[in-house]
Amino acid sequence: MQIELTPVDRLIAQTPLVGVGEYVCPVDHPQFRGGGPETCPYVVFSRYSVHLRSSRGTAEVCSPATVNLLDVGDSYERGAISTEGVHCDWIAISPSLLREIAREHAPQLADSADSVFVRAVAPVSAATFIAQRRFFAAANASRPDALALEESALRLVSAVMLETTPAARPAERKPRRNGARRYDIVETAKHLLAQDCSARHSLVELARNVHCSPAYLSRSFARLVGCSLHAYLQQLRLRASLDLLGECRYNAAAIAAQLGFSSHSHFTYAFRRTFGVTPSEFARSGKRNHMSASARSLTRCAANSDCWGRRARP
Known about the structure:
- By secondary structure, this protein is an alpha+beta fold.
- It has 2 domains: 156 residues, Jelly Rolls, CATH 2.60.120.280; 105 residues, Homeodomain-like (Arc Repressor Mutant, subunit A).
- 46% of the residues lie in helices and 16% in strands.
- The chain has 12 helices and 10 strands.
- A 6-stranded antiparallel β-sheet has the order 1-2-9-4-7-10. A 4-stranded antiparallel β-sheet has the order 3-8-5-6.
- Helix 1 crosses helix 4 and helix 5 runs parallel beside helix 8.
């Protein structure tokens, strides 16, 4: 497996099967505009939001609510949403191992000559998101055991494949009628929400900015994204809170106020409902930095929550 590092990449660890790294790039850096073609597949988790146009797809908002999937040969262009630039964590994986994982979830993709990944940008569940944050925290904290690193990385990639294959997400289809306009409206709404997830928004204001009626925006967003505008915004806020909790410089009350939650109790309730632990429990687990915490995160709330962290109906 060949991993080509750029000046803004930092390799954390590598084995013959997987590589783990971090990508931090300011908006004014030449590397920000894009990259590729890739020499191996990547599963990329974003901390900040950007516009991404893959050689395999259309321009989409790539945010902490999504995962970016790059296969061998893929290239991409990037556009700014805010002044934060790009900060993401990535797992590089052997092409043959990726196809083996894909064969478990979608055999037709594993045996295809085309890309194993159906989409370049796809929603990622709260369970997988918190698991990858714990995984990268553990990988950064100390030199990880190769076996533990590989098994944890494979669990994450397998979870992503399960969530992003057609069999796992059959309802996510672009509407046939007025598809292009509806898609552009939804992507613009995502952009507005991602610019500052702590800001307060109204449906009327958002609809005015995307040039459609409030009802059309609400209906279109739910149809294409699979959740309401408010649920999407709350996921951006909750996932941003993981970084703040990991820094150990903010308490839960300060984070709640900083990210736009109505109260400390509301933040704590939403966090526990989404991730299966309280903010203080997550902060304490981050200090231990065990790879096993990543695996527990995948099982703790995945069985009871959908892609957006909502509790499944019994």
